[in-house]
Each structure stands twice: as structure tokens, then as C-alpha cells.
Design a protein that fits this description.
With 230 residues, the chain is of the alpha+beta class. The chain has 3 domains: 52 residues, Structural Genomics Hypothetical 15.5 Kd Protein In mrcA-pckA Intergenic Region, Chain A; 86 residues, Alpha-Beta Plaits, CATH 3.30.70; 77 residues, Alpha-Beta Plaits (2-Layer Sandwich), CATH 3.30.70. Helices cover 20% and strands 25% of the residues. The protein is built from 6 helices and 13 strands. Strands 5, 6, 7, 8, 9, 10, 11, 12 and 13 form a 9-stranded mixed β-sheet that branches. Helix 1 packs across helix 2. The longest helix is centred in the first third of the chain and has 9 residues. The radius of gyration is 23 Å and the shape is elongated.
């Protein structure tokens, strides 16, 4: 990695600011002053600024209890964003790992690790997504069998993968799906002749929404939670 990029990634300095700093001779590589911003840095080398060693930040992983009215994107000119609720350095590097609709609440995963994000959201991923679903009309007797067989969504050529539901009462159920198609849960129940009025995601794979998190709050994932996404 270039020295200026290394410094920018390890600190709050921009690449331009890092270049200026390097050219002043205040940056050392293995205790040797370096003035070339393009100098390559190997993983086993030590970078220091004015004698203080700096290291690349580790990847970051968070869970958020997303409230309604928040969009799952990094930037939006019309609505508040999930990233905008976070107070983190280099927040522009964070990305949503599996989005939720603006009116859907619950577990939202956020990271700057692109590979981890891909493992989580890949169509080949076997991470179950669990939702609490509220419906406008009463749950039909045929819903469980229809979901288990795979619902055919409007505009799709292939049926959804089998889904599993547990009925809570006449209008509420717990749904587990293995995919993440666009508006999938809402479209599944629309195909069954019903309408979703509330949708809350409580779990992705082995990662369960922390009950201590109030809507809009977030926390780092534990090492065990991060490693559960294989």
C-alpha cells in the first residue's frame, strides 16, 4: 500500500494532508524518514508520525436497531440515513449489509468489510433472515404450505426458496427466509392476497438483535457474531 494511503486509512487525515505531512519529513518507515508519498509499505513494516507508531484500523462491524423512517443507504437527499445516525470516524467507508425498507424496523448490519458483506448477502449464503410480520387480513390456512413450497412473486420467473412461518395470532407471524429479494416479504404476502402492515427483522444467521438497543441505537458486533458469518 502507498504510504499516503496507509496514513489516510490509519488516521483522520485525508490523502492530500498525508502527502503534505510526509513531505515535511515527519513520517518514518522502520525508523527511517521517508518523504515520498508513493513509498510502498509492507505489512511487516512500522509507520510512525513524529515518533508515534500508527497502525491500520481493523475492519468494523455494527448492529443497529433501525427505526422506521430511516433509509438503508449511505446518502439520501430526501430522508435520514442509517449511516447518519452513527458517530464513527470515516463513516463514508461504512456500508449496509442487507438493507431494510424505510418502514421496516429491526436488525441492520453495517460494516466496512466488503468481503464480509458479500458473504452475508450473496445469493449462495444460507443465512436465514427472521422477521416478525403483521398482516392486514387474517392469516390463511394455506399460508404455511404455500410458503414452504415457494411463493411465485409477481414479475419473477422462479419461485422463492422455501420459507418457514410460525403463527403468533390471527394477524401476526414469525417468518424465516433464506433470500433477500427486493421487498421480498411484502411481495410474498401480496402474492398470497394479503398486505404487510408491520415488518421487523430480529435475526440474520446467528446474529440476534440486541434487546438492549433502543430504536436508532447501535453497537459493535462481538467477535463471535462476526465469525458466525462464514
Amino acid at each position: 500500500m502507498r504510504l499516503d494511503k496507509y496514513i489516510s486509512n490509519a488516521t483522520d487525515l485525508s490523502r492530500t494532508e498525508a502527502k503534505r505531512l510526509i513531505k515535511t519529513g515527519e513520517v518514518t518507515l522502520d525508523d527511517r524518514a521517508v518523504v515520498n508519498p508513493a513509498q510502498k509499505v509492507r505489512p511487516d513494516q512500522t509507520v510512525a508520525i513524529e515518533g508515534s507508531t500508527i497502525t491500520l484500523a481493523q475492519h468494523r462491524y455494527f448492529m443497529m436497531n433501525k427505526p422506521a423512517g430511516i433509509v438503508s443507504v449511505t446518502k439520501d437527499h430526501n430522508n435520514p440515513t442509517a449511516i447518519g445516525l452513527m458517530y464513527e470516524h470515516r463513516s463514508e467507508e461504512l456500508q449496509i449489509a442487507g438493507r431494510l425498507d424505510i418502514d421496516t424496523t429491526g436488525l441492520l448490519l453495517i460494516t466496512d468489510d466488503g468481503q464480509w458483506n458479500h458473504r452475508l448477502t450473496s445469493p449462495r449464503s444460507d443465512c436465514a433472515k427472521i422477521y416478525q410480520v403483521g398482516l392486514a387480513e387474517a392469516i390463511g390456512n394455506d399460508y404455511q404450505a404455500a410458503l414452504a413450497a415457494g411463493v411465485l412473486l409477481e414479475g419473477e420467473k422462479h419461485r422463492c426458496m422455501p420459507a418457514h412461518m410460525e403463527q403468533i395470532d390471527q394477524h401476526h407471524l414469525r417468518l424465516s427466509i433464506a433470500e433477500g429479494k427486493y421487498h421480498q416479504v411484502k411481495r410474498m404476502f401480496a402474492a398470497l392476497g394479503n398486505h404487510v402492515v408491520s415488518l421487523h427483522r430480529s435475526q440474520v444467521g446467528d446474529i440476534i438483535l440486541d434487546p438492549e438497543l433502543e430504536p436508532g441505537d447501535y453497537r459493535p458486533l462481538t467477535e463471535l457474531e462476526v465469525s458466525s458469518i462464514q
